[in-house]
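Structure (tokenized):
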């Protein structure tokens, strides 16, 4: 089943649980805008997309990824998740996503710049601070955002820093953005430990995906006294039942070396990491890491989705039957888009807010999101999953906006 069809099934599940009518659900079953282009760069034709799934709550908001497996199905699914994530976070955005299908690891810095600028040219009429606001995603970063901003402003003949987030500070970015996704995930993980692991002080944790978010998340949890017993990147992982030296592992990873070569533990595969006997499994890599093929072998009682869509629909149902607690992506990784909202708001108003104030605001918004999801979960006597609770809350806010706009009755 495609990711798009899986999303529709999850929508139907949530609608049924809350008695939402089929008529109302129709507005959430198709994207609002699908834009496609082929970028001509260095003799190559690179497929590229920008998709807005829903904009009832505000302009589109979502990242741009550079990856050889990018497809329209994937971008549409990610835009769908962004719609729900932004709604659940209670920020004034719809959901969007973009991508270019190529392998950035095989491209020079000059080619990456040209691809970024070509993307801005291809979609310049679709983007803007009041239309659709991109951000970094897989294999894109602040430098890529800078190229897109510069090209967009050349086309428009005016400064518009609010058209994109995740920028360097010098171009209107915000320092908090660097580890915002990890910070948000860390905050809800602490709440999950209190609620579902009796406040355990030294939980054993495995982190799949030791990139930016996974690395920062591991460092924060280790600083609290939890044991990071396993970690991995795309090439493989490392395991030490007594706990890895997280500071040394992070330094190793940041030096450009592969995790599985780290001397502080036993080399393992990504699939082995997923099946370790740990208290918490942090999924910070890509989509579809836990499927019907391996879900029954996953023994961790708690899972945190720091990546988008790491558990497919069938696996979700298997884990629910096992009473596995899954903190869903639209809650766990929403710290990044919340801080992107802070950046966008500053760019729009010109008012620069104190970083400590923004950190506290991020904490409050993550706590608020967690409490709303738990309240819905408990309202249903724990007979639904945390994902279903989050979907219900997000869907109902979007539908309320659609109703006020007169699009549904």
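Design, position by position:
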């Amino acid at each position: 089943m495609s990711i798009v069809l899986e999303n529709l099934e999850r929508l139907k599940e949530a609608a049924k649980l809350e008695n939402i009518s089929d008529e109302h659900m129709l507005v959430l079953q198709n994207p609002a805008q699908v834009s496609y282009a082929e970028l001509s760069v260095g003799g190559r034709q690179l497929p590229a997309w920008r998709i807005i799934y829903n904009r009832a709550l505000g302009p589109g908001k979502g990242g741009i990824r550079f990856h050889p497996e990018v497809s329209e199905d994937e971008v549409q699914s990610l835009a769908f998740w962004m719609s729900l994530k932004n709604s659940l976070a209670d920020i004034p955005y719809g959901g969007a996503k973009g991508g270019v299908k190529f392998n950035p690891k095989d491209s020079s810095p000059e080619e990456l710049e040209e691809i970024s600028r070509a993307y801005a040219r291809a979609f310049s009429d679709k983007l803007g601070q009041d239309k659709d606001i991109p951000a970094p995603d897989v294999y894109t970063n602040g430098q890529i955002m800078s190229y897109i901003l510069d090209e967009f402003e050349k086309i428009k003949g005016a400064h518009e820093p609010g058209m994109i987030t995740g920028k360097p500070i010098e171009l209107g970015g915000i320092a908090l953005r660097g580890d915002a996704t990890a910070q948000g995930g860390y905050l809800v993980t602490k709440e999950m430990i209190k609620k579902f692991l009796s406040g355990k002080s030294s939980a054993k944790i495995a982190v799949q995906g030791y990139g930016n978010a996974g690395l920062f998340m591991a460092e924060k949890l280790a600083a609290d006294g939890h044991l990071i017993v396993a970690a991995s990147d795309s090439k493989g992982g490392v395991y030490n039942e007594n706990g890895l030296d997280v500071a040394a592992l992070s330094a190793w990873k940041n030096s450009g070396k592969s995790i599985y070569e780290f001397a502080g533990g036993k080399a393992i595969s990504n699939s082995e990491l997923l099946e370790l006997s740990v208290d918490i499994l942090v999924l910070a890599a890509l989509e579809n890491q836990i499927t019907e093929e391996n879900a029954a072998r996953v023994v961790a009682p708690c899972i945190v989705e720091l990546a988008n869509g790491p558990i497919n629909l069938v696996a979700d149902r298997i884990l629910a039957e096992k009473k596995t607690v899954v903190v869903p992506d639209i809650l766990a990784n929403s710290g990044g888009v919340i801080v992107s909202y802070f950046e966008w708001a500053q760019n729009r108003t010109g008012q620069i807010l104190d970083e400590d104030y923004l950190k506290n605001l991020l904490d409050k918004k993550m706590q608020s999101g967690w409490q709303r999801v738990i309240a819905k979960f408990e309202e249903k006597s724990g007979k639904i999953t945390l994902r279903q609770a989050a979907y219900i809350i997000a869907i109902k806010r979007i539908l309320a906006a659609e109703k006020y706009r007169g699009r549904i009755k």
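Reviewer-requested clarification: The mean pLDDT is 94. The chain has two domains: 30-84+94-173, 175-409.
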